[in-house]
Amino acid sequence: MKKIGLGDAVARKPFFEVLETTPRGQVALMCLERGQESGPGPNTHPSQDQWLYVVEGEGTLRNGKEELALRAGDLARIEPGEPHQVVGGSETTLVTLEFYSPPAY
Q1: Which domain holds residue 72?
Q2: Beta strands in 35-102 (DSSP E)
Q3: Is residue 51 one of the residues assigned to a domain?
Q4: Reported pTM
Q5: Shortest CA distance to 7 belongs to which of 71, 56, 75?
Q6: Which residue, 97, 90, 100, 76, is CA-closest to 34?
Q7: Within a domain: 9
């Protein structure tokens, strides 16, 4: 068993930081300001399931076909190989926890 404290990581507000990795899974923290994108274009993880949990703020998850509005407390699932991009959308920093299985980074 292991506890991963998020307070220090959230206070640093990293763009993207892997917090913990095991052979079967991974968790990362991503922080986006209003209008900031998770990358220059869609990202894919060919063999990873990805879940995105919104800790605080609001934003948009898009896959090229549709857009999902995100707000604190939401959990989104991204299929393996599905192109996706996250965009910060509120005055408050969009803070998300990203879960990958198997590890992506």
Answers
A1: 24-84
A2: 49-56, 58-62, 67-71, 75-78, 85-88, 94-101
A3: yes
A4: 0.93
A5: 56
A6: 90
A7: no
